[in-house]
Amino acid sequence: MHSIRLPFHLELNHVYAHAVPDGDGWILVDTGFGTEESFEALQAGLRSHGVAWRDLHTILLTHCHPDHMAWAARIRELSGALLRMHPLEVDFLERMSGPPRLDPNLERWGTPPDLAGQVAESMAVTGRVFHTLTPDRPLEDGGRAGPLEAVWTPGHARGHLCLLHREQRYLISGDHVLPTITPHVAWTPEGDALADFLRSLDRVASLDVDTVIPSHGEPFAGLAARAREIARHHEWRCQMIRRAQAEGARSPHEIVGKLWNRDVFPLSPFQYRFAIYEVMAHIRFMEHAA
Questions:
Q1: Cβ(197)–Cβ(185) under 8 Å?
Q2: 3-state secondary structure of 196
Q3: Contact partners, residue 279, CB within 8 Å, separation at least 6
Q4: Computed from CA positions of residues 145, 151, 157, 158, in that sequence, does the dihedral angle turn out positive or negative?
Q5: CA 267, CA 262: separation in Å to the nearest integer?
Q6: I need a labelling partner for 32 at 20 to 30 A (CA). Which of 51, 63, 107, 146 fits?
């Protein structure tokens, strides 16, 4: 199994794709961000391990955020490989494809109109790489692709999949469990994304693996301990939101200002969108818990 580091121009600066061998050839997990630099790095990385496009028989997407899915269609065309993902990610791409739109929820959450417009403009950077994808075969919880078993872990994305190799005792965790940062969990119109995420953490914490192979950061051991750390972070975030409300924050926008102290650490419009959607995910979780 080989992990290939690909450039990503946003703050994380990299994302990993993974090439997994089996008796029929190779499985590619994720495809990187939609720049030629990323595509060339993926092609060179595969070649360095003796893998040509024609050697791929399956492309798996852990989820369909732009740094994971951008080159899936092109690689399917080059390789003839089957494209597989969770069906919920197909729905996500259909909603996200097209020009960026002003989110009417931002006004309801207290975001000033000029900032809401800047948020919409900032999303054009990643929105350009969203396009609809039709998988050749869906991959759902418990499904298999060669030696890899799909573990459905909604939260960071509704159709997020981790991929478990039981024989070699590793988990490709995508963005669900990362070694040094916490995955973004955003408010969605439906459901309770944070509750889903915490349940997914509990689920993977019980898996018997030696190594976690993430999409951002380096492989690490101690899956259960890291899952507990991430869960505690979200408990702390809920406490901070309650404190901000007790101190007079009347809207999600004002909570963002208190939590991130925008006078000291100014947020770009792109960062602000992540912040307010995460605040709203925590507020919904607390409302449901109450």
A1: yes
A2: helix
A3: 187, 241, 252, 255, 256, 259
A4: positive
A5: 6
A6: 146
Q: In this structure, are residues 231 and 223 in contact, taking their beta carbons and an 8 Å threshold?
A: no
24: Cα separation from own chain's centroid:
28
Number of separate domains in the chain: 1
pLDDT at residue 128, rounded to an integer: 66
Longest dimension (CA), the chain: 61
Beta bridge partners of 56: 26
**Ramachandran class of 61: left when φ > 0, alpha when ψ lies in -120 to 50, beta otherwise:** beta
List beta partners, residue 17. Answer: 4
Residue ranges of the chain whose pLDDT lies below 70? 98-100, 125-129, 262-265
For the domain that residue 242 is a member of, what is the CATH number? 3.60.15.10
Report if pTM > 0.85: yes
Q: Which residues 6+ apart lie within 8 Å of 195 measured at CB?
A: 285, 288, 289
Residue 29: which domain range?
Answer: 2-289
